[in-house]
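Subject: complex prediction, re-run

Hi both,

The earlier run crashed halfway through, so I resubmitted it with identical inputs.
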Amino acid sequence: MANAKKPMNAFYAQSGGVTAVINASACGVIETARKHKNKIGTVYAGRNGIIGALTEDLIDTSKESASAIKALRHTPSGAFGSCRYKMKSLEANRREYERLIEVFKAHNIGYFFYNGGGDSADTCLKVSQLGESMGYPIKAVHVPKTVDNDLPITDNCPGFGSVAKYIAVSTREASFDVASMAKTSTKVFILEVMGRHAGWIAAAGGLASTKDTEIPIVILFPEVSFDKDKFLAKVDANVKKFGYCTVVVSEGVKSADGKFLADQGLRDAFGHAQLGGVAPVVASIIKDGLGLKYHWGVADYLQRAARHIASKSDVEQAYATGKAAVEFAIKGHNSVMPTVVRKSSKPYKWTIGMAPLAKVANVEKMMPTDFITADGFGITAKCRTYLEPLIKGEDYPPYKDGMPQYVRLKNVAVKKKLGVFKL
Amino acid sequence: MANAKKPMNAFYAQSGGVTAVINASACGVIETARKHKNKIGTVYAGRNGIIGALTEDLIDTSKESASAIKALRHTPSGAFGSCRYKMKSLEANRREYERLIEVFKAHNIGYFFYNGGGDSADTCLKVSQLGESMGYPIKAVHVPKTVDNDLPITDNCPGFGSVAKYIAVSTREASFDVASMAKTSTKVFILEVMGRHAGWIAAAGGLASTKDTEIPIVILFPEVSFDKDKFLAKVDANVKKFGYCTVVVSEGVKSADGKFLADQGLRDAFGHAQLGGVAPVVASIIKDGLGLKYHWGVADYLQRAARHIASKSDVEQAYATGKAAVEFAIKGHNSVMPTVVRKSSKPYKWTIGMAPLAKVANVEKMMPTDFITADGFGITAKCRTYLEPLIKGEDYPPYKDGMPQYVRLKNVAVKKKLGVFKL
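This time it finished cleanly. Structure:
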């Protein structure tokens, strides 16, 4: 019998803000690795993302049953814990990168799967470069994830479609509500959504209005400087024509002086600064400017955790990118990221492509200017054509006694082999 | 051939804040009336609730197709428009009640179905009394609806179960999210929910935590005076034990001095009062008291409009009470309300009962004190047994291109026969 070399293990970690479908990517990674036991030994997950690798706090995913791993596909959040921890540049903190390689060596890790956004793509790229320069063989593949939809090359980012669906559905539902109440009560409903730098999520609010179901929606994008008079005129015109108006406002909207509208200086009774949202600020502007009765909501984590109304396209793509990452690594690819490639919008057809990390890291994809209508308050037909397929289909989790059954893993720790590392 | 008397018509109106399932009650009323054409002629709906009756602005529901009426069952909001318009007492404004009877006479209306909460039950009672005293035969039946769950006699109110399900599901999802982030980022998530006077909706947040899926949740009920030190100690203990904590806060929480916590005096940079929610106030208390990173959300209309995650029990009961209202009226009952009667909790069995309006009007059902744990921050086993059946089952609307297909009716106006009436 040939002396079969023991296959190398894999490391997988979740990074940054979690989503409704990042665990579907984890599911794709782990299920696919389990199908290739001759190539990949055990998948170790980082407890709380990359911090788990730095501190040698690894989770042995082989201790999880097949059904638990399968349930990751319908479980929101990051099952292994995520973190907001940006590794500095190789020059500024070579120590951390060398520690990663040290941990990988100690646990015979030859595959590095990093599931996150732009910063993580950069870390992933650096790990692959350092592996090469230190002569340690590591295949580093980035698995895309971000509700902000701002990674380049890929047509869209897993995580975004489900937020978009949640915002589109919620905007439609709340608009039906305010329309019912407008005669004697609330005439304007304001929904604050995520998106610090780009208006992708706010744009999804525009999907609530269709040819069949017209809804007067005013979107405030971070890409468009807030113009109070123009905004009030638009809301006023909608209320006059339709009896009501819905406003979808991105948390990242700025006034002409470049300041966040949300930071306009809310104070409590004692003069202390309040970390308010932008929705109550917009509400006050409407009250002062038009005297209309309003209600406002802030979706916050609800929007990115809402696995109960996840987009089927999104779940499938999150799984497919996780699966492809493993397949790429097995085939010997390094320093790459699986991408979603759109073949056609109607009907929606997509496939998985591959992008070199050097072209992904540190590049932000902004929303094209021709996705926003000339008045700055709506989405164009082109934008709609882009967005619609991404919210297509439902993918309901299983329920028990009225509640969705989300899995919690055992997350068994791997025995440490190295000394303590201070972050 | 016998000289068959033309059956009298019916009037139906929606009142107060709308819900995810009030249209399911409308569906029950209209479909059942259509099955008894020998007893009920046309169902006229009030455009914008009772205002439609006062101003003779009636909608002819016979112009709507069977499929449009069927679609009401899965459409949130009030399809005919609702209103916040409380009719004064008979003594204070007899003119309005007499106008109602005048409009009913003009349109041969012999049935009055009023779909709302406590105030509407009172109006419905008065209409039946006035009909009697004026010698005009009117069968007045109230159809229960309120997310506040505060009507007496009935085990629960249609509309509540779906809000409860939305809050329970959202609280679980957001808790999974914050748990993933807690290592390096957000440790406390605060969700503001409706319920000005009673903590029913806040209590539903407690359903997010079960034996299988334990979640550290602190509930702030309007029934319990806010005690800052006790609250901070509880949150701190949870964060120390679990790494994170979720807070579900009712908009109606008051401090010991009886003031709403939400009204503690937010000001903008110019010193103008801000109508903020209570969530940012609680967030500031946590930041100042514990220095923990937090996120907060305000569900507002999203919670009561969320037909996409409606409770199946709730939809069925909303329909059943609408249906029963018509059946009661046909049988000659007057001044009554269909109720939900619980036969057993496990398994959940219920049936429809009947309550006299005199016992419903002006009576508020508060949450029993033994539904709240001794420390004031949680729900008891008894509360859980009560709530769980109400969120049972899913009842998904149909989707097209990723969006729920909610119906909009034609709402054709009935020709007026009377002069103008000034409200």
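Chain A has twelve helices and 13 strands.

- K.
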